[in-house]
Amino acid sequence: MLTLQQIRNEKEKVITGLLKRNMTKAEEIIENIISIDDKRKTTQTKLDQSLSEQNQYSKQIGQLFQQKKIEEANIMKEKVADLKRVSSTLEQDQRNIQLELETQLLSLGNVPHGSVPAGTSEDDNEVIKENTSDMPNLSDNALPHWDLAKKYNLIDFELGTKITGSGFPLYRGQGAKLQRALINFFLDQAEEAGYEEIIPPHLVNEDSAKATGQLPDKEGQMYHMSVDNLYLIPTAEVPITNIFRDIILKEEDMPIKVTGYTPCFRREAGSYGSDVKGLNRVHQFDKVEIIQVAHPKKSYTVLDEMVAHVEKLLVNLNLPYRILRLCGGDLGFTSALTYDFEVFSAAQQKWLEVSSVSNFETYQSNRLKLRYKSENGKKKLAHTLNGSALALARIVAALLENNQTEEGIKIPEILRPYTRFDFIK
RNA sequence: GGAGGAGUGGCAGAGCGGUUGAAUGCACUAGUCUUGAAAACUAGCAUACUUUAACGGGUAUCGGGGGUUCGAAUCCCUCCUCCUCCGCCA
Q1: What number of other Cβ atoms are within 10 A of residue A156's Cβ?
Q2: What residue numbers bound the domain in which A59 lies?
Q3: ipTM confidence
Q4: For residues A340 and A208, what is the distance between their CA atoms, to the nearest angstrom?
Q5: Distance CA A415, CA A309 (A)
Q6: How far apart are CA A378 and CA A371, in angstroms?
Q7: Could you tell me the CA-to-CA distances from A311 to A79, A92, A342, A349, A392 in Å, in that order?
Q8: Residue among A75, A104, A288 nearest A199 (CA)
Q9: DSSP summary character for residue A221
Q10: Which of A109, A130, A209, A350 has the fewest CB atoms within 10 Å, i.e. is most exposed?
Q11: Chain A, 122-141: which CBs lie within 7 Å of strand B?
Q12: Integer distance in angstroms from CA A43 to C1' B53?
């Protein structure tokens, strides 16, 4: 969530930023927020004055009682009663104003970074790098991953559907082992890059979902356990970032680097067609996430470092990939700058998104109340960043398709110590 | 799930319903002393909002929410968390 300070101090920048997100009424909305906030301030002042008077009277009443001046005390009590009526209406007003302010603020996405290109859809994303040196030469009868999965008995989509429903694949045999191998490989790589490994809870409460911005924005995307009011995590970002809720760091604590593997659960309501075939879009998938808390001055260096980390994973897996800088229209609500990674899944001739690396600047930390004490002792919001490193399901899709041969599916060198087999047969 | 107990500042730990934003100790910061350090001494040390050019002032906060009262850390209700015992269980 943007801070009021940001909105007031950098009004023009915020407006142009929101326009880049195609929020056409940005100026109007911002002006409205400022006027609501003005109202909030004046109401607060009036309320405080009224309460202050009440407090003074109460002290006097106490003294009068001690001096046994009951009559005078009773007169004063009536004055307080009047003041209370005033303050309770003011309080109600203030509550409504604050609620209104909050909903207005929640409707604003993050201000995009200067390098974010204008645009309305994914077609306007900027391809900043394309590395197809590992592009396979597949024969005409190459199979898409869902057929390969069946042929080699790696994934049973029908069984998953039987047990749970569509979009819940069941991995088995070498398919299951490949999952485990990838998870371990990714975690080891993250550890080598200095990230602390975490296994967080896979369900989160409402506060946590709010703090990272899933609520109220993506309410329908999460599975909700109404009995206990808990949500299945859509990404490890939610529980891991919430480690830092209500925290004040020392400046030298940063950067903090945390990684974690979790399954991710997404309802993906409303998506159908070829996009959801096989592993392309599922309700449950595995992902290793990397997260950093960084000093505002260094967060973009950190972002580059994270992008490099993800890129290295893809190079190591010998997958053709490209890196996109998301345009204003495609940029996630909470992000200031996002790089998406896509791998080419050669049999279905499709680019599949496998990672999204973002700098949220202070947008998340504002809601998290994640701050650090700067040199002069002032508390400032830290920057948060995260990225997938990597999301498994689609990586598996690309690996299966791209590495299919007459003899079976070839496992990339780097994974062999993890799978302990060279071929899927 | 049942019975009991507890939740106060960074930590420990006081707190008759009325100068208690909160004693005291530790920790922390600055200073004095010292060649330096330690010790000792002195002072400072919560957060948020609001007001002010500034000094400063005001309001709220003692697990969360609500209530009683002129006045609540202190009384009542409710929820949460932790501890002890019992039950169940990977």
Answers
A1: 18
A2: 4-106
A3: 0.85
A4: 25
A5: 17
A6: 10
A7: 71, 53, 10, 21, 15
A8: A288
A9: G
A10: A130
A11: none
A12: 23
Q: Is the CB of A57 under 7 A from strand B?
A: yes
The full DSSP string for A135-175 is: -----TTPPPHHHHHHHTT-EEHHHHHHHT-TT--EE-THH
Domain assignment of residue A115, yes or no: no
Domain count, chain A: 2
Q: How distant is C1' of B9 from CA of A249, in Å?
A: 18
Angle between helices A174-192 and A392-402 (to 10 degrees): 120
Asked if strand B contacts A67 at the CB level, meaning under 7 A, the answer is no
CATH of the domain at A84: 1.10.287
Neighbour-count burial for A237-265, b at 16+ CB within 10 Å, e otherwise:
bbbbbbbbbebebeeeebbbbbbbbbebb
Which among A318, A280, A288, A281 is positioned nearest to A415, based on CA atoms?
A318
Q: How far apart are CA A146 and CA A97, in angstroms?
A: 54
- In chain A (425 residues long), the average pLDDT of successive 10-residue segments reads 92 94 94 95 93 90 82 85 89 91 91 94 94 91 93 94 92 96 97 95 90 82 86 94 88 91 87 74 94 94 97 96 95 94 94 95 92 81 94 94 93 96 94
Same domain, A197 and A87: no
CB A149 within 8 A of CB A178: no
